[in-house]
Design goal:
CATH superfamily of the largest domain: Type I PLP-dependent aspartate aminotransferase-like (Major domain)
Helix content: 40-55%
InterPro entries: Aminotransferase_I/II_large, HTH_trans_reg/aminotransferase, PyrdxlP-dep_Trfase, PyrdxlP-dep_Trfase_major, PyrdxlP-dep_Trfase_small, Tscrpt_reg_HTH_GntR, WH-like_DNA-bd_sf, WH_DNA-bd_sf
Radius of gyration: 25 Å
Largest sheet: 8 strands, mixed
Protein name: GntR family transcriptional regulator
CATH class of the largest domain: Alpha Beta
Structural class: alpha/beta
Number of helices: 16
Bound molecules: pyridoxal-5'-phosphate
Family: In the C-terminal section; belongs to the class-I pyridoxal-phosphate-dependent aminotransferase family.
Pfam family, one: GntR
Distance between the termini: 23 Å
CATH architecture of the largest domain: 3-Layer(aba) Sandwich
Number of strands: 16
GO molecular function, one term: DNA binding
Strand order of the largest sheet: 4-11-10-9-8-5-6-7
Strand content: 5-15%
Mean pLDDT: 89
Shape: globular
Length: about 500
């Protein structure tokens, strides 16, 4: 049976993609069974009130993605072996997951290392990095502070700091958070960590065992996915939509009752750049509390806000005793410092401390004292003002270039802070193919499937807008847009 036309010519998504989705859902619902011959093109065109070329384009997409096969002279058939696909998600509600196609793990390779390497390859104009570019670092201020602090600390610069962190660093971090309107409450403590990634590792090791299920955003920061996998825990995806992690989806996944942790990047999310609203945070807090799930909030990008006010962090909302907060100076100051902080209720913090101590013993005394000085002197605040302004200019340059040169149907996020934006291209664009093409043209970005535990995101890409000056970004994004348009037309 063919349904009468369900297509909407006024929708943002082009007709051929709407038709492709409709036909695919007929196959997924087994209304069109494996091996069945598809109605002829003119019949489909008539039923769906579209041009024949639109039908041909939709069929070409289904063929290329393995749902349909054609036999010369006989027509198109539902494929005998259907690709593995998740239940269809409403693309209007969950656009950031990309199409329902998936790639196999072996198609991805050792991406984390490669992405870092590519990002540092000077021959490429790369948008794949996840750290601030050196031209936005306060290099001179740090150099002077190191010299001054070395003199001040004298011999004590070279001994172990206290395992929980150098006192001047911990005090300065607490004062900074207080001045930002998010003081560390009584009964909670702060601990120095060598970055948010190490913070997550130590939390996972303290609160979970191999085989445990850890809820993650879908898409999710790829370093967290790699860590969860490496430690033998299972990453369970929870879809993200325009407003961040979707609480309804979370509620239904929590019903199963076997998740231990929720890992989230609620502010200027990596990779989409979106920020979870306060209302959603409150609901997620209540849901996780009810199900005994610890929330690990990674606030690595929180200080890089360039539009609007701060959304309260999970830990500062009422009823947040099951929250662990990770902060980092990697994006707001310098990734090479390897410094961040972990905030948690005292009882949890003391459990985490035991595990961290056996890993790191202590963090560099000098670097902690330097950052402490920088925070206290107001240097960090002045640096953030400059950094935020530059990030905003760079984001605007990238958005303008995308709007001018990417396909009309592309969906793009407009982050109000952070460093990344997320692009969802038409379903038939493979970001892995595009990536290969881009590299050969001297361009780099992070392909979507890196950010999903289940190989999704085939038509998505993450672009870091912080890396290059606006003029470089404009030129390179225009070239990337040209490559997307120049892909060979799909053959029916
Ligand atoms: C969300 C998120 N968390 C943590 C990290 C790693 O940060 P750190 O250098 O503090 O370990 C990154 C780096 O890209 C990130 O994007």
């Amino acid at each position: 049976m063919i349904p009468s036309s369900t297509l909407n010519p006024g929708a943002a998504s082009p007709l051929y993609l709407q038709l492709q989705r409709t036909l695919r859902s007929l196959i997924q619902a087994s209304e069109w069974k494996a091996g069945m011959r598809l109605p002829a093109v003119p019949e489909l065109a008539q039923r769906f009130k579209v041009h024949r070329l639109t039908v041909l384009k939709a069929l070409a997409g289904l063929k290329r993605t393995g749902w349909v096969q054609t036999v010369a002279g006989r027509g198109s058939f539902v494929a005998d072996h259907l690709p593995e696909a998740p239940a269809l998600l409403d693309p209007d509600t969950f656009p950031f997951q990309g199409s329902s196609l998936r790639v196999r793990e072996d198609e991805l390779g050792p991406w984390l290392g490669e992405t870092l390497e590519l990002a540092q390859n000077r021959l490429l104009v790369s948008f794949s990095a996840g750290f601030p570019p050196s031209d936005l670092l306060p290099g001179e201020a740090l150099r002077r502070l190191y010299a001054k602090t070395m003199r001040e600390l004298d011999a004590s610069a070279w001994v172990y700091a206290a395992p929980s962190g150098h006192a001047s660093y911990l005090e300065a971090v607490a004062a900074w958070l207080g001045a930002e309107g998010e003081p560390v409450p009584p009964g909670w403590g702060v601990r120095a960590i060598p970055g948010a990634q190490a913070g997550l590792a130590v939390v996972l090791e303290t609160l979970t065992v191999p085989g445990d299920r850890v809820l993650v955003e879908s898409p999710c920061y790829m370093g967290a996915l790699a860590l969860i996998r490496t430690l033998g825990r299972e990453a369970v995806p929870v879809p993200v939509d325009r407003n961040g992690l979707n609480p309804d989806r979370l509620a239904s996944i929590l019903q199963k009752g076997d998740a231990k942790l929720l890992f989230t990047v609620p502010t200027f999310h990596n990779p989409t750049g979106m920020t979870l609203s306060r209302a959603r945070r409150e609901r997620i807090l209540a849901l996780t509390r009810q199900h005994g799930v610890t929330v690990v909030e990674d606030d690595t990008y929180g200080d890089l806000r360039f539009i609007g006010g701060r959304t309260p962090s999970f830990r500062s909302l009422p009823g947040a005793e099951h929250v662990i907060h990770l902060g980092s100076f990697s994006k707001s100051l310098a990734a090479g410092l390897r410094l961040g902080y972990l905030i948690a209720p005292d009882a949890v913090l003391s459990r985490i401390s035991i595990v961290q101590e056996v890993h790191t013993v202590a963090l560099p005394t000098l670097s902690q004292a330097v950052v402490g000085h920088y925070l206290e002197s107001g240097g960090f605040r002045r640096h953030l003002t400059r950094l935020r302004k530059a990030l905003r200019e760079r984001r605007d340059a990238m958005l303008e270039a995308i709007q001018a040169s990417f396909p009309r149907e592309a969906e793009v996020t407009e982050p109000k802070g952070g460093m990344h934006l997320w692009v969802v291209l038409p379903e038939d664009v493979s970001s892995l193919d595009l990536h290969r093409d881009a590299i050969s043209h001297g361009l780099g970005f992070a392909p979507g499937p890196l950010f999903f535990p289940d190989g999704r995101g085939t038509n998505c890409l993450r672009l870091n807008f912080s890396t290059h000056a606006p003029s470089v970004t404009r030129e390179a994004i225009a070239r990337l847009g040209g490559l997307i348009h120049a892909r060979p037309a799909a053959q029916p």
